[in-house]
Design a protein that fits this description.
Elements: H1 3-12, E1 17-22, H2 28-34, E2 46-51, E3 57-61, E4 74-78, H3 81-92, E5 97-100, H4 116-124, E6 128-131, H5 133-141, H6 145-175, H7 181-194, E7 197-198, E8 204-207, E9 231-240, E10 248-255, H8 262-288, H9 294-307, E11 348-352, E12 355-357, E13 362-364, E14 367-371, E15 376-378, E16 387-388
Parallel strand pairs: 1-5, 3-4, 5-6, 10-16
Antiparallel strand pairs: 1-2, 2-3, 7-9, 8-9, 9-10, 11-14, 12-13, 14-15
Length: 389
């Protein structure tokens, strides 16, 4: 944690400070931004204030008085509830506008970590609580060179495993040998383990109507067989099995046969063009140094899909932030589920993954885009044609 950099950002955003609070590790963002790794999980509330000017301040319970000792600043301890209120009043006294992990109307749920009661308590002291969403982007969602390298290496391994999974589907379906979605899922998970990759869940492997369910995951006892003539979709995400590594997250779509039906090919072409328009929107703004907000990237993809008559069949945002968690805390490419007005900033990464989901089948094409200082790149292989297996 760089206190001086945080204070500079607070002044730029006309904030008097950034107030962190946690209880039972409910706010993982606080621990990552602060670089806080206590010896044991806290069971009592702690507060940490970084003011725009001056020394940080701590408020901790007496039985866990050392919980914030790794952080700079003066410390006050409390035991009973009246001491807590008095201590918090002194902690934030003189500060009018403080950032907290809060989002108005929960517009950015990945940032809304502070409970309503704590917000009421802080506001009752006379503080205007502001969202820390833009600060979180700066001090949590931005990558460094090591994170970028971990992402690129994970991408090389995941892309190879994805190609092997498609070959498996082709070999088994051409031979007429039964193969289920669950078997492909387990094949990928085993390959992840062998390649030194970890994931929180998944992958998604869906054929025909199951490919039209964006968050479908097969189970051992509820899994469809993949057959000749099927559209199938594989969405897989993983990161290196090492500290501070970040995810790589992609989706490819295939067809089991020598030539896909015209309707399938038409949907694929529309989704591909929508994806490419969103990529180009990001790349053009980055190269020109123009400000770009998450909802504008969503508009680039969604607008084209609507023009082609499939607007009602694209029911999720165009992309999400990527970090140490597959759904990160930076700007999402979203003007559907939320109206994400956060700027796309350098050294962040996100998915671009438009999809069209019809009754019989679905198509989604997902890439990861990393925004550098003057250039935005797709970090892995790009699917340009429907994979025929």
């Amino acid at each position: 944690m760089q206190v001086s950099e945080i204070q500079e950002a607070l002044r730029e955003q006309h904030l008097d400070g950034w107030l962190f609070v946690d209880h039972h590790r409910r706010d993982p963002l606080a621990y990552r931004v602060l670089g806080l790794e206590p010896a044991s999980d806290p069971t009592r509330r702690w507060f940490y204030l970084i003011p725009a000017e001056g020394e940080p301040k701590k408020l901790v319970h007496r039985i866990e008085a050392a919980v914030l000792d790794s952080l700079p600043g003066s410390k006050t301890a409390y035991s009973n509830w009246s001491e807590l209120v008095d201590g918090l009043t002194r902690l934030v006294g003189g500060h009018r506008r403080l950032a907290m992990q809060y989002s108005p109307r929960c517009a950015v749920p990945y940032v809304s970590m502070v409970d309503g009661g704590t917000l009421e308590l802080v506001r009752s002291i006379g503080v205007e609580v502001c969202s820390s969403a833009d600060l979180i982007q700066l001090f949590e969602a931005r990558w460094d060179q090591a994170k970028l390298e971990s992402h690129l290496e994970a991408g090389r391994r995941v892309d190879a495993i994805r190609a092997d999974a498609f070959r498996l589907v082709g070999e088994r379906t051409r031979a007429g040998t039964a193969l289920t979605e669950w078997e492909v899922m387990q094949f990928i998970r085993a390959r992840f383990e062998a390649a030194g990759l970890v994931t929180d869940h998944g992958p998604i492997v869906g054929a025909q109507a199951n490919a039209a369910n964006p968050h479908y995951e097969p189970t051992e006892h509820a899994s469809r067989e993949i057959r000749r003539g099927d559209v199938f979709l594989v969405d897989l995400w993983a990161k290196l099995k090492q500290p501070r590594s970040v995810y790589y997250d992609i989706t490819w779509t295939g067809f089991c046969g020598p030539q896909a039906p015209a309707e399938v090919d038409r949907v694929f072409q529309v989704v591909r063009e929508a994806r490419n328009r969103a990529i180009h929107r990001v790349q053009a703004a980055t190269e020109k140094g123009e400000p770009l907000r998450g909802f504008e990237v969503d508009d680039a993809a969604r607008g084209y899909i609507k023009q082609q008559g499939f607007g009602d069949h694209f029911m999720h945002r165009t992309g999400h932030s990527i970090g140490e968690e597959v759904h990160g805390a930076g700007a999402n490419m979203d003007n559907l589920e939320t109206h994400d007005e956060r700027k796309v900033i350098p050294w962040t990464c996100f998915s671009i993954e438009p999809g069209i989901y019809l009754q019989e089948f679905g198509v989604r094409l997902e890439v990861n885009v990393f925004v550098g200082d003057k250039k935005a790149i797709v970090t892995g292989e790009i699917q340009e044609e429907l994979v025929l297996v």
